[in-house]
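Structure in, sequence out. Go:
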């Protein structure tokens, strides 16, 4: 815990001065720790347990600070963005993802070139590559290229509720990106990455190709590749939605459950080796080796690595007859991973998987005691149900916070997939390793059957509670409530139960207050988009959206809908720029919008070479689609407070209008690569 707190603090306060201080402090603390360890008896250190514990907590806290700061790319002297270069030598550090004619992949920068100078560099760069569809380039992990050193910092999110891409990339230690064409890549070499990872990815691709030949149904092939090998490139949105709405998305993330299924099978098959101590050791080595071999087949997926480390620690502690405290095994696994990659702490998969395991350890034994069945199979079914409840309960706060939904039928769906997923795992591995190709039709049928069943459950009434939005404070309150009530009930401590009820009351009061505010809200939001325009006129839970987007448009889903969902808007009326509209709150017509006493002039190409007949007063002028009308002329004819320039205007016109607004001392807001605008009513 102190190690993680150190990482969190350092992540938000990254600077070279803190790194220097932390380095000296850690070196000093390690020296003291070494002296204490060497002269423990002479110093009679056992008399100062509290002091020693505090010292070691402090040591691990500083170690967390150092690990995070040392890992942060921008703090390194040779970080590529700290210098000025004309070209960069890079190699592909992850499997490229291709969607349409755009390939996205991360590259490690190794050298920078400027004139005749060559410098060693470090850091990761995100590349979006425009692929030549007639002659597409073959991209693989480890391929080395020379590219132009034209990159930009990753842009932040500009709209409320929008996915924060910059923050997500920063959690992966990536801060810059570039967009280039295929012709701008100069291939230099291949196999520059980690040889073991390169071999793992190549092997996985070969195994994916085996499934591609044997499985005819595209959806079944995608699920097979994801389920067995962690290859998610071909999964459809419909399939993902079905698994997500039923609370079974974990089945598509190769993780602890999959490794556990393999462990159970191996433990059963190799059970004959339990007769002697020496053969037991052989069994442990074989199981650990085969689990890590499976990790290799998945391309060393981070979730599989977590499970492999955790299971290996558990197996070894059991073999060595040590008291295998499950929480210590979790802590050891987390420490190993965070020492190697401290930014994993912000990975959603990392957080959810560890919380699920903690839930299984803490909640599952307690829930299992609620019921007991004499029938063996009924009792087994209840124990499986208890596992699902335990994992869901432990991950509930994070699931709501990140995914804004709760699957109502998660118990039914998890029980439904339990046997099919287990059988699919064994069939899929048998086809790949034992070449039992005749099993492929049964494998495909089982996947299709499971997908159909989950889609049926997902389409049931009230299958999931969606659009649940909680903020960071409410997340902390919900987690604190679950912690207090769990400990209070299990240890019969009334004060903790009472404290949990107080926390729950504060949590509910916060949500109720927000809902009341949403029911009474009156807002206008001008969204910041790439090429389109959108303005939401919100009254309570209704909204009039003036836009050229449609409900099925990806830009609407990504940039606009999250904000409206967050404000609990339930009814949206789409209105285009050209369309006249009138209701009890808003009037749009004659190039004007009147809403709640605020007036907006809609200025477009229809005003070219024209003049307003009478002086008018507007709160804002909304400039759209490259009008030739000059702001200096408009200011003589209209009284206005501010200017809104949307993304339908060309960049050079946006620049001209912004300069004109500054000269006229007007408030100007560009709705492209700038923050969305709230108009105060």
């Amino acid at each position: 815990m102190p190690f993680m707190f150190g990482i969190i603090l350092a992540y938000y306060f990254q600077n070279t001065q803190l790194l220097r201080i932390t380095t000296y402090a850690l070196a000093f603390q390690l020296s003291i720790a070494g002296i204490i360890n060497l002269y423990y008896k002479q110093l009679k250190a056992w008399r100062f347990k509290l002091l020693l514990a505090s010292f070691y907590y402090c040591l691990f806290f500083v170690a967390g600070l150092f690990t995070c700061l040392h890992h942060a790319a921008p703090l390194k002297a040779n970080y590529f963005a700290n210098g000025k270069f004309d070209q960069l030598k890079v190699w592909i550090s992850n499997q490229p993802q291709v969607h349409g004619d755009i390939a996205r992949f991360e590259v490690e920068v190794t050298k920078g070139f400027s004139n005749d100078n060559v410098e060693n560099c470090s850091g990761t760069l995100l590349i979006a590559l425009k692929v030549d569809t007639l002659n597409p380039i073959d991209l693989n992990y480890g391929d080395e290229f020379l590219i132009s050193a034209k990159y930009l910092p990753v842009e932040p999110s500009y709209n409320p509720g929008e996915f924060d891409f910059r923050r997500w990339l920063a959690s992966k230690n990536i801060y810059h990106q570039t967009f280039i064409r295929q012709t701008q890549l100069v291939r230099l070499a291949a196999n520059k990455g980690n040889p073991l990872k390169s071999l793992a990815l190549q092997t996985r691709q070969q195994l994916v190709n085996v499934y591609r030949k044997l499985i005819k149904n595209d959806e079944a092939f995608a699920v097979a590749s994801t389920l067995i090998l962690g290859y998610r490139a071909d999964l459809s949105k419909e399939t993902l939605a079905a698994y997500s709405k039923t609370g079974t998305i974990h089945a598509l993330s190769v993780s602890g459950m999959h490794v556990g299924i393999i462990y159970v099978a191996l433990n059963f098959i190799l059970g004959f080796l339990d007769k002697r101590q020496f053969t037991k050791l052989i069994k442990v080595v074989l199981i650990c080796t085969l689990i890590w071999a499976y990790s290799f087949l998945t391309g060393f997926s981070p979730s599989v690595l977590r499970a492999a480390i955790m299971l290996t620690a558990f197996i070894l502690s059991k073999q060595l007859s040590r008291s295998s405290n499950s929480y210590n095994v979790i802590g050891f696994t987390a420490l190993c991973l965070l020492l190697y990659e401290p930014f994993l702490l912000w990975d959603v998969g990392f957080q959810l998987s560890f919380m699920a395991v903690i839930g299984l350890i803490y909640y599952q034994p307690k829930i299992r005691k609620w019921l007991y069945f004499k029938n063996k199979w009924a009792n087994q079914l209840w124990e499986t149900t208890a596992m699902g409840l335990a994992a869901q309960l432990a991950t509930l706060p994070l699931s709501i916070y990140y995914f804004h939904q709760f699957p109502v039928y998660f118990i039914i769906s998890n029980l439904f997939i339990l046997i099919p997923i287990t059988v699919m795992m064994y069939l899929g591995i048998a086809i790949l390793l034992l070449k039992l190709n005749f099993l492929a039709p049964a494998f495909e049928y089982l996947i299709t059957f499971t997908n159909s069943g989950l889609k049926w459950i997902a389409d049931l009434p009230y299958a999931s509670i969606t659009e649940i939005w909680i903020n960071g404070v409410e997340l902390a309150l919900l987690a604190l409530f679950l912690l207090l009530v769990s400990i209070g009930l299990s240890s019969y401590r009334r004060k903790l139960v009472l404290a949990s009820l107080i926390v729950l009351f504060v949590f509910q009061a916060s949500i109720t207050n927000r809902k009341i505010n949403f029911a009474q809200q009156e807002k206008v939001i001008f969204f910041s988009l790439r090429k389109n325009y959108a303005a939401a006129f919100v009254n309570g839970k209704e909204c009039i959206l003036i836009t050229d987007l449609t409900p099925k448009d990806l830009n609407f889903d990504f940039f606009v809908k999250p904000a409206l969902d967050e404000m609990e808007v339930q009814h949206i009326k789409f209105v285009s720029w050209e369309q006249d509209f009138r209701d009890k709150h808003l009037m749009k017509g004659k190039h004007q919008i009147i809403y709640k006493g605020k007036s907006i002039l809609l200025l477009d190409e229809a005003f070219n070479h024209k003049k307003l007949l009478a002086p008018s007063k507007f709160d804002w002028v909304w400039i759209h689609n490259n009008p030739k009308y000059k702001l200096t002329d408009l200011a003589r004819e209209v009284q206005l407070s501010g200017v809104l320039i949307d993304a339908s205007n060309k960049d050079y016109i946006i620049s001209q209008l912004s300069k004109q607004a500054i000269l006229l001392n007007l408030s100007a807001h560009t709705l492209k690569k700038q923050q969305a605008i709230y108009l105060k009513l």
